[in-house]
Design brief:
By secondary structure, the protein is an all-alpha fold. The chain has 11 helices and 2 strands; from the N terminus they run H-H-E-E-H-H-H-H-H-H-H-H-H.
């Protein structure tokens, strides 16, 4: 077999593997859209739940999910990107820094239920924040930090060394080079890591179960110390804990959650494309 036939065979095999992965995903998305589209209405999206969540809307759950995602971004992005900058640009390659990187990788694989119990013990009980948006945001932020740090560090390390050399030869400080040269060039990869972390936070159920989520709360939160409903937990409750719940409402809630996460992903893709065009390497 010549190399062109081998290449063609490789392309066919890769295409088949891609179809095996993509087709089930498309079928799941199509089923959710077909089953849940009928539930989507103005009242469903902007109304308060009634009759034990069997009627009305899911506005508190939508608002709660958005508030938690914003809270995670507020806490996780500065610390995550800052930690990545330190590990990539300042920290020396020592046993201590290698241990930190290993710990970050291991933390990324810890089950989310463990983070929920950690948040319950630290933020809810020890710091006395109670079951609140603030406690839930801090718990989710800690859970997403390993993803953001790892992806951001890889993006920073991918920037060619020549940029740093030129900055030093022109008399620029290390921080000037990071702020004006390295960070703008690494932004596409950093954005990817941030969005992966936020998407995980937006779709988690276990951590918010212990720290913020309310079973039934037909009102909007008034402060960061209030409980709130959230779409992942709301979907879990109406699917498993509420007898007689119409199937259409369950799929409609899943469709809203999927739309929010896909919208976040699309926004990140557009931002990544924009900054990638401005990249100089």
């Amino acid at each position: 077999m010549n190399r062109y036939a081998q290449q063609r065979l490789g392309f066919i095999a890769l295409g088949a593997v891609t179809l095996v992965v993509v087709i089930p995903i498309l079928l799941v998305i199509g089923n959710i859209i077909a089953q849940g589209l009928g539930a989507i209405s103005w009242e469903f999206l902007f109304g308060m739940p009634r009759a034990g969540m069997r009627a009305g809307g899911i506005l508190p759950a939508i608002v709660g999910t958005i508030l938690l995602t914003l809270g995670v971004a507020l806490f996780a992005i500065p610390f995550g990107v800052g930690g990545a900058i330190y590990l990539s640009e300042y920290a020396r390659d020592t046993t201590f820094t290698r241990a930190i990187r290993l710990a970050i990788i291991n933390l990324a694989g810890i089950p989310s239920i463990v983070y929920g119990l950690f948040g319950l013990g630290l933020f809810v009980l020890f710091f006395g924040l109670g079951v609140s948006i603030l406690a839930g945001s801090l718990t989710l932020a800690i859970m997403t930090l390993p993803v953001i740090i790892s992806a951001s560090e890889e993006a920073l390390r991918a920037v060619p060394t020549e940029f740093r050399t030129v900055n030093a030869s022109l008399g620029g400080t290390r921080w000037q080079g990071i702020r004006k040269i390295i960070l703008p060039q690494a932004l596409p990869g950093i954005i990817t890591g941030v969005i992966l972390g936020l998407l995980r936070a937006a779709g988690e159920t276990a951590p918010i179960l212990f720290t913020v989520a309310a079973f039934y709360l037909p009102r909007l939160p008034q402060s960061v110390f209030d409980q709130t409903m959230a779409l992942p937990y709301h979907l879990y409750v109406i699917s498993t804990q509420v007898p007689g719940m119409p199937l259409q409402i369950q799929y409609g809630t899943a469709l809203v959650l999927m739309t929010l996460t896909l919208s976040l992903n699309l926004t990140a893709t557009l931002l990544r494309r924009h900054f990638r065009k401005r990249r100089q390497w």
